[in-house]
Write a structure and sequence with these properties.
By secondary structure, the chain is an alpha/beta fold. It has three domains: about 200 residues, Up-down Bundle (Four Helix Bundle (Hemerythrin (Met), subunit A)); about 90 residues, Elongation Factor Tu (Ef-tu), domain 3, CATH 2.40.30.10; about 130 residues, Nucleotide-binding domain of ferredoxin-NADP reductase (FNR) module (Rossmann fold), CATH 3.40.50.80. Helix content is about 50%, strand content about 15%. It is built from 13 helices and twelve strands. The protein has a six-stranded antiparallel sheet. Strands 10-9-8-7-11-12 form a six-stranded parallel sheet, sandwiched between helices. It is elongated, with a radius of gyration of 26 Å. The structure holds flavin-adenine dinucleotide (FAD).
């Protein structure tokens, strides 16, 4: 990370903390409800912080490019996930403290006799528990991703609306108009974010439709979608970045899938996405007729040679469809006439399934590129590398130790492989800040 990026990251984190703590700091002087004591005050402060955090969860998924750039959007999504757990824990402690110290303040649990704002508070807690646990357990529970996503958005919006109702209804520490105004500002900011995320942002994407020009089968159950913007404009992107693709649905329908852009950044008028058939959506891609409309929300990500200049070249380690962002970087470097030394270590199951293997041979002639294939099930007579990408395999092909520290490393493949390669590179003396990864399962 450059010093400038670090400064920006610190700036955004400081702003986040300020927004989360502002209600507590500003309202701290509030005339306390007489006789209720520290536990009560502390519980209210936790409730405030949790509500501010849940409001800001919507900022984290709004894909604001300036705010996500210093971290990478994947890290911001991880923040979104883990901060939800922290905020939920604060909510639980907020309720538990009141239940222990002032149980009568909770009132009746029966919605027929309870006050509306206390019922709203209970509903908010229940919804937040469901939303958070469901998100954490989604992959284990299985089920359709798109349906989960819609349910996630709806239930969290309901939870937040109920939480604001609870806050304004109970009115603790909101005795002065300016104090109410502060929370009204948070509530309005949240409504604005909701509109931006669910209406304005999809509207902007809908205004720039793309067309599928070609659907090209590749080896290894991979299909390349070739897309062109209807108005002929080019997409400016950095090689290795990714796009959210919407096909056969409106951009408002929340049915988008992330894919690395595989084509050269030298020509953004034709964008290619190489998609491996894994589930319903990715398998259906091969049946998309040319001429069909598509929408792209792009570009995102920081997995790019352009973000990590290296005078002495690059090392790419790809597994299976993890080759897609590498193809973009290699094609771009070739189009730019780059002469820096490049090494690609590319793992696959079988030789017949190695996507882009013929094109890689051509790229090796245009670039100073060495390609090392490793196969789990090599064909008879195979003399190349066998098995997974291990520390020993890396050691056999990496440049001498002195040059290692001056190269940048890009790793993309199945998550287990990516993490194992990163560990192996560390033990071979590659500084961690020189190793960059793109995980395909962070969403
Ligand atoms: C940054 C990034 C870049 C990627 N680049 C590529 C690429 O170049 N080529 C490629 O083949 N794959 C890529 N993927 C993976 C690809 O997005 C998923 O394989 C695809 O969305 C699976 O959808 P499915 O419905 O076919 O599979 P399913 O079997 O329905 O889903 C399998 C899993 O994929 C994930 N997933 C499903 N739908 C979505 C969605 N709408 N958004 C996010 N995740 C979803 C979920 O974790 C789900 O459990 C990338 C992923 C990320 C995060």
């Amino acid at each position: 990370m450059s010093a400038r990026t670090t400064q920006r990251a610190i700036g955004w984190l400081a702003l986040y903390l300020l927004l989360v703590l502002a209600p507590v700091l500003l309202l701290a002087d509030a005339a306390r409800t007489p006789g209720r004591g520290f536990a009560w005050d502390f519980s209210m402060a936790l409730g405030y912080v949790a509500l501010a955090m849940f409001t800001l969860q919507w900022v984290l998924i709004a894909r604001f490019k300036r705010a996500t750039a210093p971290f990478g959007i994947d890290i911001v999504y991880y923040f979104h996930r883990y901060l939800a757990v922290v905020a939920l824990a604060l909510v639980v402690v907020h309720v538990a403290l009141i239940a222990v110290v002032h149980p009568q303040a909770l009132g009746s649990a029966d919605p027929r006799s309870a006050t509306a704002h206390m019922s709203a508070g209970r509903a908010a807690v229940a919804l937040l528990v469901v939303v958070t646990l469901w998100a954490l357990l989604r992959q284990r529970l299985g089920g359709d991703y798109d349906r989960w996503r819609i349910a996630h958005a709806l239930l969290s919006a309901l939870a937040l609306a109920a939480a604001f109702w609870h806050l304004f209804g109970s009115g603790h520490y909101l005795d002065a108009p300016w104090k109410r105004a502060l929370w009204v500002a948070y509530a309005l900011a949240w409504v604005a974010l909701l509109l931006y995320v669910r209406a304005l942002h999809p509207w902007a994407i809908a205004r720039a439709p793309w067309r599928v020009r070609e659907v090209r089968p590749e080896r290894g159950r991979v299909c390349t979608l070739v897309l062109e913007r209807e108005d002929g404009h080019a997409l400016a992107f950095e090689p290795g970045q990714f796009a959210w693709l919407t096909l056969r649905a409106s951009p408002f329908a929340m049915r988008e899938h992330p894919f690395s852009i595989a084509s050269s950044a030298a020509d953004g008028r034709r964008v290619e996405l190489s998609i491996k058939a894994l589930g319903d959506f990715s398998t259906g891609v091969r049946d998309v007729p040319p001429g069909e409309r598509a929408w792209l929300d792009a570009p995102y990500g920081h997995f790019s040679v352009d973000r990590h200049p290296a005078a002495e070249g690059y090392v790419f380690v790809a597994g299976g469809i993890g080759i897609a962002p590498m193809m973009s970087m290699l094609r771009t470097l070739a189009d730019r006439g780059d002469r820096r030394p490049l090494l690609l270590i590319y793992g696959n199951r079988a030789w017949e399934r190695v996507a882009f293997r013929e094109e890689l041979e051509q790229l090796a002639k245009r670039l100073d590129l060495k390609v090392v294939h490793t196969l789990i099930e090599p064909p008879p007579g195979w003399t190349g590398e066998r098995g997974l990408v291990t520390r020993e395999l890396l050691a056999r092909h990496l440049p001498p130790a002195a040059a290692l520290a001056r190269r940048e490393f890009f790793v993309c493949g199945p998550t287990a492989m990516t993490l194992a390669v990163e560990r192996a590179l560390g033990t071979l003396g590659v500084p961690a800040e020189r190793v960059h990864n793109e995980l395909f399962d962070w969403v």
